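hey so u asked for the seq, here:
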Amino acid sequence: MFSFLKPPPPKERLPEEQVDSHYRRLREQVFLGTFVGYAAYYLLRKNFSLAMPSLIEEGYTKAQLGYPLAAVAVAYGLSKFVMGNLSDRSNARIFLTLGLLLSAAVNLVFGFWHWATSSIMIMVGFMFVNGWVQGMGWPPCGRSMVHWFSISERGTRMSIWNVAHNVGGGLIGPLAILGLMIFNDDWHSTFYFPAMVAILIAGLVFFLMRDTPQSCGLPPIEVYKNEYPRDYSQAHEQELTASEIFFKYVFTNKYLWCIAIANAFVYLVRYGVIDWAPTYLMETKEYSFNKASWAYFAYEYAGIPGTLLCGVVSDRIFKGRRAPTCVIFMTLVTIATLVYWLNPPGNLWLDVTALIAIGFLIYGPVMLIGVHALDLVPKKAAGTAAGLTGMFGYFIGTVFANIGLGKLADSHGWDMYFVIIIASCLLAIFFVALTWNSGSAKHHAPHDQADT
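ran it, structure tokens below
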């Protein structure tokens, strides 16, 4: 592994009277760094969808444009797993910042060099590279969450953090409109303008982020909160090898496989709806580009209160069990999707309401599956566990959402597209339900409590 990525060594423990004040300040600082940083990743990942109507005007078909979208999903899914394992053994501060800068560089090339959008194969290549470096975003955030926040607060905290998806994903709509205004209607600004913004944000992220509490002279979060997961021991504070992470804690975990499969269907719904929303609304509901962009914005930002509600429900009502909340939310997603599909053209506000409802509901299960993955393994394996669920979500769910649904929309129309979306909702509910009783916290110190 590159030496500059290695986690910093533990610092000498701060005096006891300084621990609480430093912990409180650094927890919020790290949380803000992960939030802002991950939101910026979305400025560089979701912009291609808003460029698609312009690319279709240049002669590309929906099926063709599904391939660059799928390239991002394939690369991101694989990278999230590979980089998840690497991030478990890396400095979260450097890892998160570096990935954001690399993604910005790819988008600058994509925007300023017009040959980058001159053929499907070139776009596939660039989008694959972008997807790979995008895979450096979630794992260091997950690593930070399990090191700085305990299990009983993690659902609520991560529901707040997960809003970064919506902030970044939603801002790309208004940001694209602003870019067109600034750069004289050059649709390539959809790529290079967000990249400029992301570079500025990367500097802020590096300033805010820290790696582990121990690297700042603080005790582990379990000691600070006096709250321990099942089977916690001092060994949980030791760095693990790649083989230990894979074969001891990840590949042998049956619940982790269930939520990974469920995640594939959740992501098919999530990206199947949002990636094709501008095209679907402009083709079948006669929306303008601006109206479609604001509908995109509404979908993303509706996820904010929905995600927060989802996290609180899983922590306070179901006491750390994530599956019941996921099942409830995905059932409601199914109903909202039916309304979005069956509403005839001309009912603008019903379209928007249904899309807002889907956005409100879908991001909760997206977030909780990630939290569930973190809960099921020791914290030194958190990035890999989340990477496995992410790989299924992106490699299977999002790839089909991009290529498969694009082809279905071209060959069989939008009705078949929605049949697949509804079926995916039902399958997600089934596989999540298999983990119904998994997940809980232990609130007293174990006999071999780790204090270093």
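The mean pLDDT is 83. Residues 382-412 form the longest helix (31 residues).
lmk if thats what u needed
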